[in-house]
Amino acid sequence: MLTPSEYDHLCDQLITLYDELDRAIIDDMVRRMMRMGKVSDATSWQAKQLQEAGLLYEDIISEIAQHSDASAAQVRTLFEDAGVQSIRNDNHYYTDAGLEGIIRLSDAALQTLNAGYIKCRGELRNLTLTTANTAQTAYLNACDLAYMEVSSGTMDYGTAIRRAVQSAADEGSKVLYPSGHSDRLDVAVRRSVLTGVGQTVRQLSAINAGDMGCDIMEITAHSGARPSHAEWQGKLVSLSGANAGRIIDGVKVLTTNDIGYGTGDGFGGWNCRHDWFPFIEGISSRVYSDERLAELNARNIEYNGKMYTEYEIDQMQRALERDIRARKRAVSAADTAVKNAPDEATAKQMQELFTAESVKLKKAEKELSTFLDQTGNLPDSTRVWVNGFGRSTAQRAVWANRKAVNNSSIDKSVGNGIIKSNKADSNIVIKPGKKYSSSKRGSSLISAARRQELQLFEESVCKDNIETALIIPANGKPFQKTSGNERKVLFTVEEMNLMSGGLLSHNHSNGTTFSADDIQMLVQTDLQEIRACNSEGAFVLRNTDKPLPDFFYDSDLLEVKLTEIEEELLPEMQLQLINGEITFEEFDKGIQQAAVEKLMNEYGFDYYFEVR
Hints:
The protein is of the alpha+beta class. The chain has 4 domains: 1-213, no CATH class; 214-297, no CATH class; 306-407, no CATH class; 442-611, no CATH class. The chain is 55% helix and 10% strand. It has 17 helices and 16 strands. The strands form 5 sheets. A 6-stranded mixed beta sheet has the order 12-11-13-14-15-16, with helices on both faces. Strands 7-4-3-8 form a 4-stranded mixed beta sheet. Strand 14 (529-534) and strand 15 form a beta hairpin. Helix 4 packs antiparallel against helix 6 (185-211) and helix 9 (310-339) packs antiparallel against helix 10. The longest helix has 55 residues, at 42-96. It starts with a helix and ends with a strand.
């Protein structure tokens, strides 16, 4: 058995590899479009595009070959690790029942594991090879459309090329199924691997249960299950059918047919995160009570004034995340077009495209941020990750968006975090020149009574989901602020002006470190110290004596800088994850903490974790 959370991050590392292929295909298409040339003689122009399409096909096949070995190695490791983790999880239930547990896999289990790997590897290769055909077709279609639009006079050359580049980002790296259905490469890979690994480990659990003389399995349950799966999650199932229909521990035992085992839309089918684990009659008790299952399926999350189930909210979040990935691909394609434009006029057209796509990206990111604020859901960086996007491309996208926004006279506010106020407001205190020496700053300056008040505050809010802040001004009475939002506290300009030289503490109950908005808050209001507390202690960040670059005063640019550092640290962290040195949760939080620590150390801040 694998837990739902283990399924959630099963494909993260593999998707990164296929994102490289995705980006290579789109970039190759765009570079060839930039060499398209002016539309002239129909025969020679079409002959040139056919030749480019053939070369494009060959290049993609070459890219696929380069990624194949690395992909096969990661898939094998993924299957082996999943098999080992599945046995560990199952053994907890066997040992709790007084049984010895699984010491080694039987021959049948080993054959199942190997067969699952071979099948998944072959399916991934077949799917990936179809991208060469779909990309070639998409390239020719885009070129043909551009030719017809320009030659008929309905569109100028620059506009037609812009549309061709947009088409490359939208259609370039898709896989084509025999049914005619197509999907983005990352979507197809995630579905194939999640389904393949899930089916394999479920078979392993069933084989091991048979070896242990166990016929009844309990199905895992998770919030956000699709309605047809919510009907049987958390229930008991008989592998052989011999115990089907009996009432055990208050529930009727189901058959494998009742849960759709072996079908695409049933238990263990497409994208299913449910699994099962051994239930020893007379010893085991159900993990999922009827009351707990009812809570998982409740319509209890509010968004835009309506109530939704977690499944509905998850589907909404996935759609917003897909939109952001698509926007990032479009920005990246436009960036490639700018760099490979054959002349100044085309470069200007492509820069306009880059700006337009950047505005769309920032709008999509803001929409997701608003959604997360309202629902209390946490962001999933792996779902919006696009390989190669995040360094200079991301920074140029931020500036392009800001320029477009300024030109449109649209006010922009500080982003998500503990502060939200108008940047253009002249009443906000910004004193980048005033800093504090190492010996006279932070909580070391507050009185014993204030330190006790700080301790009591952090102990009282560290586990709360609603974010609350305590401000201890340098001169004046401390005050608390709660905005009733799970992810940020809003301050007025007057409250911000009271913070200079003071201390601010707030809660991050999920254990995350400081956000870009938190860091900006520290430097913009000239706080001495900012703290983010959780159940184990508090992250502490104390101000610096060094002069700071402009990006520290802009949360968007600061976020870009932190993303750049995360990308630098990613290979080492991925290796630790693959080697089993850290868990997925430790990976997510660890890479954020490492990026913040590296940047803070570079500019002389004091950054550490204070254990309670």
